[in-house]
Specification:
By secondary structure, the protein is mainly beta. Helix content is 5%, strand content 49%.
């Protein structure tokens, strides 16, 4: 987690990694905005996997003080997961676009990502910090009891490119 260490606003974010898709595994690479509590701070799930599918999600605050999700999924299997893949986010003043292996999974314009609490605050027009994690179990991860351990979320690199 880069919270308190480094944050970014806009740019190209890339990660080359291999994820484990065994039962109960929940790998993720995501960002959170530095201002306001969740979900008003904004969340971008550049890569998230659970229960047989990749997810590319973006969340802001809806009018009921809950998360409003903009997401797409892609089913994957163990053959796919055995290889390294490249996840990418292109984020600028106009949109957030999420890719895997240069295939667009989700693109949302920033004008749709304004918090719906009447504040007009757009959590994607502020710096975000990033997190990489491998959660096990939980609501989304599922039951890991039939999975043998240890497991790996292998990261070759994470890079952030920004205009000067």
């Amino acid at each position: 987690m880069t919270r308190g260490l480094h944050q970014w606003q806009y740019g190209r974010f890339e990660m080359r990694a291999r994820i484990d898709v065994s039962n109960g595994m929940w790998p993720a690479w995501w960002t959170l905005g530095i201002s306001k509590p969740w979900p008003a701070n904004g969340e971008i799930d550049i890569m998230e996997y659970y229960r047989g599918k990749l997810l590319a999600n973006i969340a802001c605050l809806d009018s009921n003080d809950k998360a409003e999700w903009f997401g797409n999924t892609k089913p994957v299997d163990t053959v796919w997961a055995a290889q390294f893949h490249v996840w990418r986010m292109d984020w600028d003043e106009d949109y957030v676009a999420l890719y895997v292996d240069d295939s667009l999974m989700n693109k949302v314009t920033l004008d749709k990502l304004v918090n719906k609490d009447g504040s007009s605050f757009n959590p994607f027009k502020q710096p975000h910090y990033m997190l990489l994690n491998l959660a096990i179990g939980g609501t989304n991860g599922g039951d890991p009891s039939s999975t043998s351990f240890p497991k790996k979320f292998e990261v070759d690199y994470v890079r952030v490119y920004q205009k000067k």
